[in-house]
């Protein structure tokens, strides 16, 4: 992982569990079996990070990019 601080930050949150999803080739971060972050790559091998956020905030970010 290029940004090791992300792993440390996510794991520092209370109740977070990390596992590796072999089929996806990524690390998942979960709280109570609910995934909230994904760190891995896309189908072309490009590194990506996906985070769950509030829908309204996501809409705002999409409009500002």
What's the short version?
With 65 residues, the chain is α+β, with helices and mostly antiparallel strands. The chain has two helices and four strands, in the order H-E-E-E-E-H. The two termini are 25 Å apart.
Structure description:
The two termini are 25 Å apart. Strand 1 and strand 2 form a beta hairpin. This protein has helices at residues 4-11, 55-64; strands at 16-21, 26-31, 34-41, 47-51. The chain has a four-stranded antiparallel sheet with strand order 1-2-3-4, with no helix packed on it. With 65 residues, the protein is an alpha+beta fold. The chain is built from two helices and four strands. The chain has one domain (4-64).
Describe the SSE topology.
Elements: H1 4-11, E1 16-21, E2 26-31, E3 34-41, E4 47-51, H2 55-64
Antiparallel strand pairs: 1-2, 2-3, 3-4
What is the strand content?
35-45%
Task: Please give the count of helices.
Answer: 2
What is the chains' assembly state? single chain
Helix content: 25-40%
Please state the CA-atom Rg, rounded to the nearest Å: 13 Å
Distance between the termini: 25 Å
Number of domains: 1
The structure class reads alpha+beta
The largest sheet is:
4 strands, antiparallel
